[in-house]
Amino acid sequence: MEVTEMSSARIFLWCAPRTTSNVFAKSLTAIPGIEVWIEPFQFAQHALNEIQENGEGSIDRPIQYRGNEALFQKAASGMSRFFGSEIIPGRLPYDAVKRSLEKSSSKYVFVKDMGIAMHSDSLREYIPAGFKHAFLIRHPTLAYRSFRNLLCRQLTAVGEISQADADSKFDIRYLEKGPKVADFFLKNHELWKYIRDNVDPNPVVVDSSDLLANPAKILPKFCDAVGLPYSDSLLSWDSSPESYRSWILAGDRVMEQAENFVGTLIKSTGFSPPSELPLRDELTDDVAAVSDSVMSAYEEMYATRIM
Questions:
Q1: In the structure, how many helices (H) and strands (E) does the chain have?
Q2: Integer distance in angstroms from the first to the last C-alpha of the chain?
């Protein structure tokens, strides 16, 4: 299919963790003139989690960088240990993210972020103006099973838990930092309703299994709905880290150091077939319980997806 020329477009793709959103972003990176941001508000939320953990603030009350430099430097230090890569403090405040996105002069701007990062009215005030909004969803059992496996690998790699604990004791329902994991889906669903009622009456919804099963069908529909140019060049790519280095994150080398998060993605050359839904007895107790608690929210969004 030939490229369809568009004038310009700015898009937010909101999601929950492990919904194949980085694959989506990798595909769109091939669009000439596009600027790709990866989770700027989620990193801002990580910083507020760190600040709250240190007893110095609230995850519901964003604070400006000026006058609070020491807080953000301390938060960045804690985040750097978890991600294994330097985090830049000045990129973490919500207001700094909003300003940077609204100032971008790129022809196309694509922002992949987490709905949980906008889980309250005070945070939603920082949603930048002028963006079309879309949501990427995935069946909860697939997303939460993948999230549990990922987190165990990362926490084991940085020495926060042992492999034995990862295999037998780890439970995603009782993480010490950040929000409850059910909120990954529930707050994304809540944000979808907020966007629909207050910002964009027709937010686009894509289910990741549909995308992976038939990208040549779903991607053109998505691009048309959000104002991006489509060509078949979006369907495959080189297994090279070069294109990821153009992505804008809270640190300049996060992608290079994020083997446990994106190792499979960096080695990929295109969309892989979707995973089969696991049987109930194949799930750990925590994954089964959390998936059950968010299923109705997923199903409501699923009913509005592009097909």
A1: 12, 5
A2: 19
d(C-alpha 144, C-alpha 133), whole Å: 24
Q: Per the confidence metrics, is the pTM higher than 0.85? A: yes
Phi-psi region of 123 (alpha: psi -120 to 50; beta: other; left: phi over 0): alpha
Of 125, 266, 116, which Cα lies nearest the Cα of 192? Answer: 116
Rg (CA), the chain: 19
- Beta strands across the sheet bearing 132-137: 34-38, 108-114, 9-15, 132-137, 204-207
Task: List, for residues 252-299, the tens digit of each pLDDT value.
Answer: 877 665 554 555 666 778 899 998 998 998 998 889 999 999 999 999
Alpha-carbon gap, residue 155 to 300, rounded angstroms:
33
- Report which DSSP code applies to 1: -
CA distance 112 to 247: 10
Torsion of CA 121, 127, 133, 136, to 10 degrees: -70
